[in-house]
Write a structure and sequence with these properties.
946 residues; mainly alpha; Serine Threonine Protein Phosphatase 5, Tetratricopeptide repeat; 5-stranded mixed beta sheet; 48 helices; 5 strands; 68% helix; globular
């Protein structure tokens, strides 16, 4: 059987094991026992056990001691061990091959070539030397010769009846993987992970590199579960395998789990400070946090270990370009150009270099640059299989779906196990069935059956409202048409699942809309359990389209989110205000160095909300402090490739530390005016009890304990303690609330109201006492008094929405339309997704004959639910009132399509059609109106604020 694979090993380490020991000696040989200690990561113990064996087993001992040194980054000592042993065994192929591996990993090609040649002269079957020979050919640009060298492993495996050394099996797997990858042979992946590498473990159950290589195969294919399982199996054997910890850092980065990635990379460097892969992981983590300068520091360290490693130089070139700035050939960083020239001179087929560069640009969201260098990698080294998939995925982000499909199909043919590629091809299959709606500036793809109305209204909103407003505001128009795609349920997968796959090729993205700079994807609200304001999302995402392109993709995540949220035009949400009230006093805030992580990898949904809130506050602070053009100045600075620190300096002549101090003062001033029903009491019951016992005369401590007794339903203790407080301080608000709740429980509402009324200081009311008192007045039907109290709450605590909700309920019952309307408008602005309030406002405006306002709120209601028949009917009625019968006909037709039994909508259609001169439509509508007039006509749902 011939074996092949699609695995991609990202780094070459010297053969980690492979000290040949006869099978019948394994259980009893001292050298085998020392080898087991090494495999289990007990390097010092392995050295102690091996050292006395040097005379009897000189080659095996030298190899083992050298590998113990290499595992901890002591490469000079490892080389000394090997050269010393060579003095006694000058033609030892294993020693020579090991020396070649050390030289190759340090970028010393002449030495590596010399030792490989000597090893193969001593033993032409030495598989480690064969693998290094192939690697030297590959990295030297001799691709045909390298391919033939990889094929040698296939033939060697097929001609070998039995393997005694697991290291030989590992090198067979590495060579066969490359051959399969380069020759588009995908069917052997299963053989490698299910048979070949497990056979190495059959020879030695402690041979953890078999698990490691298997994990790398799964890692490349984004099979995170299996990759993690393999790496953990390796660590279970050897917890001190630095290579595995570095691989786990890469695995964590695939999900932007930066904290886990940092820990794994740090552990890898702790074990082996000289491991290049650990520095690569640390550099990738820095790039993921948009810190290219820190990445350069890590990569400089890796470059000292090996000055010609493509994985190092590719990342470093990208980091130089990010820091130094460039947009076309004339502006490229000199450091960037120097590295590129150096690599091209050494290897004109350095596809791995350009692939590493593309991945670095991908990590920092420089998508056009990533696509450019993925393409360069594929051109210079067509043998690379992974790059086609990555380029295809990148082109999907950039909206070039036709070219992306070709690349993804080619990648899938080579590697059907790549999860992201497979998922993205399924996305394209779904899009094949979608309809397309084009406007002068947009292309919208949608499910023609489920989202026809949404697409139509989205197109009108984007083209006639969003585009002119935002392009004027930001002074920029994108080249070509922007692609918007709306995903609904299809093929047993929900719209949000398809939306997520469209953006990242994986099942879950935490938002309902996302932008990659030239395209936007949206989960259709029609396929979600909870509706949302789709218009708000589209406007938000189009800000990203503009900002990413106008800054040449050099805008940090937090700033484009700041601009997008600020452009929405809504005030801070109740959730954001509550977070500010709770977190600012604790100084639990992001700063400019950490806020990006709140978007890409929040620790909780509240962290994610806080990141958006703080981003908007950064924008508002800039506008307040530095003027109306502050945001434009920052955009221009980012477009010129400045980082945030330098952008602040150029735009406002302020150091980042001073800017942060002013921002913090700004946020604190906002937080001081917030209330979300009173501060949350974080003290435990035990602490409250302890505080009261420590100082029984502390009335506040006693009142807090009384309130705690009430929460625990220990009403007798609550009543007793609260009364003691009130005897000494008759208007103590916390004690009054505690005792009032007990009295309310037994039906003594009037007594409770008297307590609360005495406790409420109208100049500085306690929010809990005020809310309870207002609720009692409302319950008793004393609506005027309740209204006054709720109005006081709204005045004193303007950022707590509950007061306005209670006022609205009061105005509804008192039929106070004059006050209800502005209150509902405030509630609508506070919650962009609230459909009932918008419908109520539209109906109120219609009843008042204010057709302009009716049109406004009816349209706004459709932004929350474009499939709501009543919303279309109210919009049609408003258009009739505005003397726009043709447009009214369009809306009535949508209304009756959505609700064919609405006789009122049919009558309206008939009326509008007559006015528009559409006699045939009018006659048809009149007929339908008569047929349905016996059925009750649905009325717009009234709002009942809670």
């Amino acid at each position: 059987m011939r074996i092949f694979s699609l695995a991609l090993t990202l780094t070459l380490a010297p053969a980690i094991c492979g000290i040949a020991v006869a099978a019948d000696e394994v259980a009893k040989s001292p050298i085998a026992e020392a080898r087991t200690l090494y495999l289990r990561g007990k390097y010092e113990e392995a050295r102690e056990a091996a050292a006395p064996l040097a005379e009897k087993h000189p080659v095996e001992t030298a190899l083992l001691l050298a590998r113990c040194d290499s595992a901890e980054g002591k490469y000079a000592e490892a080389e000394k061990q090997l050269t010393g042993a060579l003095d006694k065994s000058p033609k030892s192929a294993p020693l020579l091959a090991e020396l070649a591996g050390l030289a190759f990993d340090r970028g010393d090609r002449p030495a590596a070539e010399k030792h490989v040649a000597a090893a193969l002269a001593a033993d032409e079957q030495c598989r480690q030397a064969r693998w290094l020979s192939a690697e030297l050919l590959r990295t030297g640009g001799k691709l045909e010769e390298a391919d033939a060298a990889h094929d040698w492993f296939i033939r060697n495996y097929n001609n070998t009846e039995k393997f005694d050394d697991p290291d030989d099996i590992r090198h067979i797997g590495l060579g066969a993987a490359q051959f399969a990858r380069w020759n588009r042979l995908s069917d052997q992946f299963g053989f490698l992970v299910n048979e070949l590498y497990p056979s190495a473990l059959e020879l030695d159950k402690d041979y953890w590199p078999a698990h490691y290589e298997t994990g790398l195969l799964f890692l490349e294919k984004y099979n995170e579960g299996e990759a993690s399982k393999s790496f953990q199996a390796a660590l279970a054997i050897n917890p001190n395998a630095a290579e595995v910890h570095a691989a786990l850092a890469r695995l964590a980065l695939q999900n932007y789990n930066l904290d886990t990635a940092k820990k794994s990379a740090a552990r890898a460097k702790e074990i082996n400070p000289e491991l290049a892969a650990a520095h690569w992981a640390a550099a990738d983590i820095a790039l993921a946090n948009f810190d290219a300068e820190l990445a350069i520091t890590e990569l400089d360290a890796a470059r000292k270990l090996n000055p010609i490693a493509d994985d190092t130089l590719g990342r470093l070139a990208a980091a130089y370009a990010i820091v130094d700035g460039w947009s076309d050939a004339a502006e490229k960083s000199e450091r960037f150009k120097t590295i590129v020239a150096e690599v091209n001179a050494r290897n004109p087929h350095a596809g791995d270099f350009y692939f590493a560069m593309g991945q670095a640009f991908d990590t920092v969201r420089r998508f056009p640059a990533a696509a450019q260098y993925y393409h360069e990698a594929a051109e210079r080294m067509p043998q690379l299989s992974t790059v086609r998939g990555e380029l295809g995925l990148m082109l999907m982000r950039l909206g070039d779906e036709a070219q992306a499909r070709k690349l993804l199909d080619a990648s899938f043919e080579v590697d059907p196990f790549n999860v992201r590629v497979s998922n993205m091809r399924k996305v394209l299959d779904v899009l094949d069935d979608y309809a397309v709606l084009e406007t002068p500036h947009f292309v919208i793809k949608f499910d023609r059956i489920k989202d026809e109305h949404l697409a139509k209204y989205a197109a009108d909103y984007l083209e006639n409202h969003v585009y002119p407003e935002l392009t004027k505001k930001y002074g920029f128009e994108p080249e070509g048409k922007s692609l918007f795609e709306i995903f609904n349920r299809s093929r047993n997968t929900g719209g949000h699942g398809w939306f997520s796959a469209r953006m990242v090729g994986l099942p879950y993205v935490g938002t309902v809309g996302a932008c990659a700079g030239k395209m936007v994807a949206l989960a259709s609200p029609g396929g979600m359990e909870e509706k949302f304001n789709w218009a708000r999302v589209l406007k938000h995402e189009f800000v990203h389209v503009l900002n990413l392109q106008q800054s040449r993709f050099n805008i940090p995540h937090w700033f484009t989110e700041a601009l997008a949220v600020e452009s929405e035009g809504y005030p801070r949400s109740e959730t954001w205000n509550r977070l500010l009230a709770e977190r600012v006093p604790k100084n639990d805030l992001f700063n400019l160095d950490t806020i990006n992580l709140g978007f890409v990898r929040p620790k909780s949904s509240l962290d994610w909300q806080m990141a958006y809130c703080q981003a908007q506050l950064y924008a508002q602070y800039m506008l307040k402090t530095y003027g109306d053009d502050a945001l434009a100045k920052m955009l221009a600075a980012y477009r010129d490739n400045l980082n945030t620190r330098d952008a602040l300096r150029r735009s406002f002549d302020v150091a980042q530390a001073d800017f942060e101090k002013g921002y913090l003062d700004f946020v604190k001033s906002i937080a001081q005016g917030l209330s979300a029903g009173g501060p949350r009491d974080a003290m435990s019951f035990a602490d409250k009890l302890k505080a009261h016992k420590a100082d029984p005369d502390d009335l506040d401590a006693a009142a807090r304990l009384a309130a705690a007794y009430a929460e625990r339903e220990e009403y007798a203790e609550c009543r007793k303690l609260a009364q003691q407080v009130l005897d000494k301080s008759p208007k103590h608000p916390t004690a009054s609330v505690a005792l009032a709740r007990v009295r309310m429980l037994i039906g003594e509402d009037e007594s409770a109201a008297k307590l609360l009324s005495d406790a409420v200081d109208k100049a500085k009311p306690d929010p809990t006492a005020l809310g309870l008192l207002a609720g009692l007045r409302f319950k008793a039907g004393e609506l005027r008094e309740a209204e006054e109290l709720y109005a006081l709450g709204a005045e004193k605590f303007p950022h707590d929405i509950k007061w306005k909700k209670s006022l609205a309920k009061t105005y509804l019952l008192t039929k106070n339309t004059a006050k209800l309307r502005p209150t509902l408008e405030g509630l609508a602005m506070a919650d962009a997704d609230d459909l009932p309030i918008r419908k109520k406002l539209a109906q109120m405006a219609l009843d008042a004959g204010d057709f302009k306002e009716a049109r406004r709120w009816a349209v706004d209601s459709l932004y929350c639910d474009v499939e709501d028949a009543a919303g279309h009917r109210m919009l049609a009625a408003a258009l009739e009132g505005l003397k726009l019968p043709a447009k009214a006909v369009e809306e009535y037709e949508v209304a009756v399509k959505l609700d064919p039994d609405d006789s009122g909508a049919w009558a309206g259609l008939a009326r509008a059609a007559r006015a528009a001169g559409k006699t045939d439509v009018a006659e048809r509508a009149e007929k339908q109106a008569k047929e349905t007039e016996s059925k009750p006509s649905p009325e717009p749902r009234t709002v009942e604020p809670k």
